[in-house]
Design brief:
The protein is of the alpha+beta class and 243 residues long. It contains nine helices and eight strands. Strand 5 and strand 6 form a beta hairpin.
Length: 243
């Protein structure tokens, strides 16, 4: 297939799935990027630009093409819902999983930024699905913390395949009624660490999941249902969830 044929095929495929509100200039840069990645077998903007220059799809120089490709990084239309979520959604459905383990992980970048990410566990790795970022080391403006978490969960709902059991894994920061209420409202399972020490940890999950091999004691009610605090050996927990 010639370079112009590849270009027109890519444009046809992207045009069939892209949001109709994306303007022509953004669409053109996306088509050039994908076509150049095919030709370069690389996602490096410099390599993509060189491949496009060799294809002679435009009369622009490689330097000009690279600048055009790099403008996508600052294009407000190129957000995660356009570029990444369709990919993640399709692959989650393609895998036909019976159960998905989702990891909720808060992290900070030297107190400058706070990021709470949601990832799916896959063969010992965490593959990102969605995230929320805001300035760190400063009072929140606008929505509060838990409202932001709930909005993140709503974003994840749109990515998940239907009729698949979802189990959330989180650390002690989320072992509280307000977060468990959010999960229970969406009929999700959950397990999380609430206390560590002496190579032992304590995990929380609904009493309905207590068929797992462990011993523990019931502590309190949450989210309108009985929940229990169970004590695990840390190694046993790692083996059960294949962390």
């Amino acid at each position: 297939m010639s370079a112009p044929e590849v270009y027109h095929q890519v444009r046809k495929l992207i045009g069939a799935h892209i949001d109709s509100q994306v303007d022509e200039s953004t669409l053109e840069r996306m088509v050039l990027l994908v076509t150049g990645m095919i030709g370069a077998k690389s996602s490096s903007p410099a390599q993509v630009a060189k491949a496009l220059h060799r294809m002679k799809l435009t009369g622009a120089s490689a330097e000009s093409l690279e600048r055009r490709i790099r403008r996508l990084e600052n294009d407000p239309e190129m957000d995660v819902s356009l570029c990444f979520h369709p990919f993640a959604r399709a692959h989650l459905r393609y895998g036909r999983a019976q159960e998905l383990l989702l990891i909720l992980d808060p992290t900070m970048q030297e107190d400058r930024l706070v990021m709470v990410s949601v990832a799916v566990w896959y063969r010992g790795r965490a593959l990102p699905l969605a995230w929320a970022i805001w300035p760190g080391n400063t009072p929140l403006e606008g929505e509060g913390f838990w409202k932001r978490i709930e909005r993140l969960l709503d974003e994840v709902v749109l990515l998940l395949p239907v009729r698949v059991q979802i189990t959330w894994m989180a650390d002690r920061a989320f072992g509280c009624p307000v977060f468990i209420d959010m999960l229970a409202a969406r009929n999700w399972h959950y397990v999380g660490i609430v206390k560590g020490g002496n190579d032992r940890c304590r995990a929380w999950y609904p009493i309905a999941a207590s068929g797992r091999r462990c011993k523990g004691r019931h502590s309190r009610r949450m989210a309108g249902e009985q929940s229990a605090w169970w004590s695990y050996g840390a190694s046993a927990m790692r083996n059960h969830y294949a962390w």
